[in-house]
Amino acid sequence: MADDIETQLAGKYQRLQVLEAEIKDLQARRAAMPVKDYALTTSAGDAVRLSDLFGGKDDLILIHNMGFGCPYCTMWADGFNGIYPYIQTRAAFAVASPAAPEAQRKGAQWRGWTFPMVSAAGSTLFRDMGFETDDGAPMPGTSVFHRAADGTIGRRMSTPFGPGDRFCNVFSFLDLLPEAAGGRQIWYEPKALIPDAKRHPA
Known about the structure:
By secondary structure, the protein is an alpha+beta fold.
């Protein structure tokens, strides 16, 4: 019985790898969606454009974050802090939220974040990228932009975030626990790590 389970697992992992390779191929063939050069604000309060976030890179990974009031978004960003030095060797990386620059600055200090943050307040970035509800509430996810040789910017990839996704490895590790057997969801809501709303900056 144990050998049969191991064989089934090996086969499914192999199928998963093939499927992931096919998804990457389709993503690479997707046409870029032209976007405008949005006016944003850094956490230091300086005006910037979307194009400024690229720095010397041709690609930009931009996280759409709901703000410090969301424990999931805060946990996602805690994880980004650890991988940011690796990502920036290949692409530019920044986190955008509707929070005011001062709240972002205080929040980054509170969490020890080192990656760039920008406020999208006053812009239509979240709405245009599909990360805003009909009533104007922000939603989490990521957009990947590419800057062409002529300076034009296009969005090549996008995906929403949600509890249990692969953008937070806490979920992946918890899914290995016996408690997750049978496909049961044991998504972790990190309330214990998030102080009372009156104590955090947003």
